[in-house]
Write a structure and sequence with these properties.
The complex is a heterodimer of chains A (116) and B (117).
Chain A (H helix, E strand, L loop, with lengths): L3 E4 L2 E4 L5 E7 L5 E7 L5 E9 L2 E4 L6 E3 L9 E3 L8 E8 L11 E2 L3 E5 L1
Parallel strand pairs in A: 2-11
Antiparallel strand pairs in A: 1-3, 3-8, 4-5, 4-9, 5-6, 7-8, 9-10, 9-11
Chain B lengths: L2 E3 L4 E5 L4 E3 L2 E3 L6 E6 L5 E7 L5 E3 L5 E5 L4 E6 L8 E8 L10 E3 L3 E6 L1
Classes of the chains: A mainly beta (116), B mainly beta (117).
Chain lengths: 116, 117
């Protein structure tokens, strides 16, 4: 998990609340990602960002929002529009470089979100 | 459609025996393949990747993977399993259809490896 921190480790949300998950990296990576993990399923991409002030929707972006104001930070907000937000959320980063460069992603320790 | 399949939900192995965790893929163009491991309530840790070259890729913690183009497989292997290898293992492939300029990965559903003493 080195180099990427996520907070909090556990988060509880009431119905109708927005919550923000923190992700910080000190690896000087350009690209950052948010994934959602549900039991028995692989990771699904929520949002990604290749550079500061730019981000794109992934496969399941509805009900989520992000910002990328600093290279090292990529917070994820789970809004009240997300109907089933209980899941394990993982942040990752990788060196940039475009399609010609095949780089592995490095993951944070995750945040477990539970809706009460 | 591009996809990754891990046909076994769980693999059980006795400590000291060889282990194999299976992965098959379907992509357009050249496959770029990854293996990750996840311990309980932790993030994923990178084990190894195949980009090109030798079909046998060596990675962290004594793991290796064999790329087989004709069978579209990328099975993870270890000659002698340890109890500490017990974890959830994910295979992933780079999405070659993605038009953006970065490495989007498609993950399999994961295989739980249980190594018994």
């Amino acid at each position: 998990d080195g180099g990427i921190t996520q907070s909090p480790k556990y988060l509880f949300r009431k119905e109708g609340q927005n919550v923000t998950l923190s992700c910080e990296q000190n690896l000087n990576h350009d690209a950052m990602y948010w994934y959602r993990q549900d039991p028995g399923q692989g990771l699904r991409l929520i949002y990604y960002s290749q550079i500061v002030n730019d981000f794109q929707k992934g496969d399941i972006a509805e009900g989520y929002s992000v910002s990328r104001e600093k290279k090292e930070s990529f917070p994820l907000t789970v809004t009240s529009a997300q109907k089933n937000p209980t899941a394990f959320y993982l942040c990752a980063s990788s060196i940039g470089g475009g399609r010609a460069v095949i780089n592995e992603q490095f993951f944070g320790p995750g945040t477990r979100l539970t809706v009460l | 459609a591009q996809s990754v399949a891990q046909p076994e939900d769980q693999v059980n192995v006795a400590e000291g025996n060889p282990l194999t965790v299976k992965c098959t893929y379907s992509v357009s163009g050249n496959p770029y393949l990854f293996w990750y491991v996840q311990y309980p309530n932790r993030g994923l840790q990178f084990l190894l990747k195949y980009i090109t070259g030798d079909n046998l890729v060596k990675g962290s913690y004594g793991f290796e993977a064999e790329f087989n183009k004709s069978q579209t497989s990328f099975h993870l292997k270890k000659p002698s399993a340890l109890v500490s290898d017990s974890a959830l293992y994910f295979c992933a492939v780079r999405d070659s259809m993605f038009s953006g300029g970065y490495n989007k990965l498609i993950f399999g559903a994961g295989t739980r490896l249980a190594v018994h003493p």
